[in-house]
Amino acid sequence: MSEPGPLLVIQNDQTCPLGWFGDWFAAADVPVDVRLGFADDDIPIDADGFAAVIVLGGEMGANDDATCPWLAPTRSLLRAAVHGDTPVLGICLGHQLSAVALGGAVEKNPAGQAVGLTPVALTDAGRADPLLGSVAPGSAAVQWNADIVTVSPPGAVVLAVCPDGSPQAIRFAPRAWGVQFHPEASPEIFRSWIADAAAGATGPSRDAERAERAIAEAEMPLRSAWRPFAEEFARMCGFGLGS
Asked: What is the pTM of this model?
């Protein structure tokens, strides 16, 4: 049996790298091919030759094609991957791009920006899901987003719900998932988002500094919660990780 190809990773923003997932995949000898959309790297038209597609987060919106020209080919890639039954994982913006690519809608959250640690509230479908079901009950995750999925694509299943009632995780197809949170984000990555916000016109949100401290204190529980999730996704992609 041949080895699976690498995981194709689309990075949309300098400050939203693969993070902990990159460390965990490297430790398990899972190859990755990272394409920097924001730096004009080539975005493949389909997932042929890749074991999976992972699309990361970013400050832009899922429909900001005029200023972010790689988003349209990324949505096309996501559609091709889903139609070809290649595993897909969308994280934050990647979750939103998946929803739009497959016929859903994304808008600004009327409840405002979500920042900091958020409990992952699995639905019954989420607890039974082969990927999200690997998440321990009571786990928290890092969130930093102003947009949300307001219309799920046809056939999609909501697997978790945010405190404001918006979808927190969705299964778009049998082997395609999106999560609004950031299971890959370390305290250092979150700190870089705070710094970027502080340098911007609006500055960080009112609770951002408090959230930064809470995330730093929760580093080990976050690692414990999301490493099994990353490794389970790699197993689903054909990599022979131990249990």
From this structure: 0.95
